[in-house]
Every structure is written in structure tokens, then in C-alpha cells.
Amino acid sequence: MPETVLVTGGTGYIGGWCVAELLRRGHTVRTTVRAPGREQAVLDAVSTVTDPGGRLEFAVADLTADAGWDEAVRGVDRVLHVASPLGTTDSGDLVTPARDGTLRVLRAATAAGVRRVVLTSAANTASPSSYASEGVTDETLWTDPDDPTLIPYRRAKTLAERAAWDFMARYDGPTELTTVLPGAVFGPVLTASTEGSVGIVARMLTGAMRGVPRIGLEIVDVRDLVDLHLRAMTEPAAADQRFLGTGEFLWMADMARVLRDGLGDLGHRVPTRQLPDFVVRLAARFGDPTLREILPALGRRNRHSTEKAHRLLDWQPRPAEEAVLDCARSLIDKGLVQQPS
């Protein structure tokens, strides 16, 4: 039955697709924006794939502040907490805003008696500490947040999800929690944005990436990830569960070949050379400090099992190649990547 669903972060990549798909399935959607004036951007983006039909509402609420959250959840049946304040602080502390933002949403949702909250976490909260691991892990594993080799993003996402489950363990009420742990998210974009994983494809298409590092990604299409969220939102068996939402594993060199072969002339700038690990390490040390966070992932082959999502939710993601190509075509169609003259 159609319900009223709050989606945090409707201006984001995953959040925008959540809003669009919920509307497409007949729900009424309320989505948060951090400040007034951003509503039209969400409406314009969503309208490219579905007609909101007067069923899209907005609430102003920032994950770094208490104001607005009680109003945001009022009258809501379910919550998809997709937004993350990671990267919005100047202090360098990623843990506090990620954890406190999650707890703000849960406090408001439980106080309002929301039926279920689905929290978007990350697959790297269920990964072994050893980057040399080549096994297959599932949702029963938790990343060790005290591992000194963890990059700040992994630690923040892990501690934020841990805080959510700890909060629910102390809570005695009707609200249920489910978490979804995505891999690298690709697929079509709704807005003129190249944030997150999408930026990898954009850099390949523009030639900004001169060579590809030896890094592998578990690729999930944003449309399939949203489908997983919606299944987790309503399926009774999903209550109090974690679900990995990863897809096929592709090395970045394989992604480059997919783009070259699938796009023809439009992919002529995509790099074909795989960079030796020592070159990436030297560049991170002496040239591009932003590369330092990817160094632990060089050559890593650890993968995640999505058997639980298949078994309990009948979730079936599309092939990784389709997600990568649809992402590239979308970036080209929206003019985010210059076509060859």
C-alpha cells in the first residue's frame, strides 16, 4: 500500500533515485534539504524520470543540527536515511558528524513511532581489517574501528552504523532498523554531478585519468541499490538485519575496457594503461596526496557475499558492465563529458 516515506538527502545521488523510485511506485515522499532554496533542484532532477504528481514534500533539516528533525518525521510511516554529513566538516573529524547525524534521525524516528528506518551504511563496514585478505565475507563481519590502518571514511561509516545498532538495542518500542551496505555505486545520474563513484567514470571519459590503478570495485547499479532499499523497507524478514548491496567485482582496468568497447568513439579518451603499484605510491607521496587513501586498496581482492539479500529479499542486481556503461552514457547525455569533435 502507498505510504509516506522520508528520504534524507534528496539532493544526493542515491537519495535522489530513492525519491524518484518511491514516487514511481505510488508513495508520498518527503525529503530533507540542508537549507531552503534547494527544493527546486530535487524536483527538477526527479522529474526527469517520473512525474511527482503533487506527492513530493520537503523539510529543511541538517544532520549536524537538531532543528527540523521532529517536523521532518511527523506523519511519516518509514524512513530511508541515505544522507551522510561526511565531508561537510572543516575539523577533519568525520566520525562525530556521521555518528551524531545518524542518532538524530533515529531519535526523531523512534519518538514519532516510525515503522522502520533503513540506514544506508557501506560495504566497507563489513570488511576484514587486513587488506591482504582475498576471502569472501558477509554481514556477520564488522570492520574493526580501532585498526590504525583504516582510512577515516571507513572508520566513520563503521562507527556510525555501530552507534545505530547500539541505540536500537537500548530502545524499547515499535520502530525497526535495517541497514544496507552498498559497494561502489554507478549507473545513470539525475543531476549534473560527478560525486562519489560516478567521478571515476567521469575522469576516465575526460582523459583526466592517465592510467588506472590496480584497484577492484564491487559495482552495484544505483537503481538496483534503491530497489534493495525499498525491499528492505517493507519486507517483514528484513527487520533488524544488515544487507550487503554489492555487485560484480571489476578491476578498474576491466572498467576501462568496458567503456572503450561499449562507447566506441565516445570512449576514446579512456585510459588503457594500468599503472604499476609503485607509480601510484610515488604519486601519492610526492604528487597527489588525495591518492593516499586508495593505497591500502591496491591489489585487494576481498569480496562480499550478497546471498542474504538474494535469499530474504529476492534481490537480483544487473551486470556491472551495464551499470558502468549506463553511467557513462548518462554523463555524456547531460553534457558532463565533452564528446569528441
From TrEMBL:
Check the record and name the InterPro entries matching this protein. Epimerase_deHydtase (IPR001509), NAD(P)-bd_dom_sf (IPR036291), NAD(P)_dehydrat-like (IPR050425)
Entry-linked SUPFAM superfamilies: NAD(P)-binding Rossmann-fold domains (SSF51735)
Do the record's keywords include Calcium? no
Single GO molecular function: oxidoreductase activity, acting on the CH-OH group of donors, NAD or NADP as acceptor
Q: Where is the NAD-dependent epimerase/dehydratase domain?
A: 5-240
Domain of life the protein comes from:
Bacteria
One family name in Pfam for this protein: Epimerase
- Write out the entry's keywords from A to Z: Oxidoreductase
Q: Does the keyword field hold Oxidoreductase?
A: yes
Q: Please state which protein family the record places this protein in.
A: Belongs to the NAD(P)-dependent epimerase/dehydratase family. Dihydroflavonol-4-reductase subfamily.
Question: What is this protein called in UniProt?
Answer: NAD-dependent epimerase/dehydratase family protein
The organism of origin for this protein? Streptomyces bauhiniae
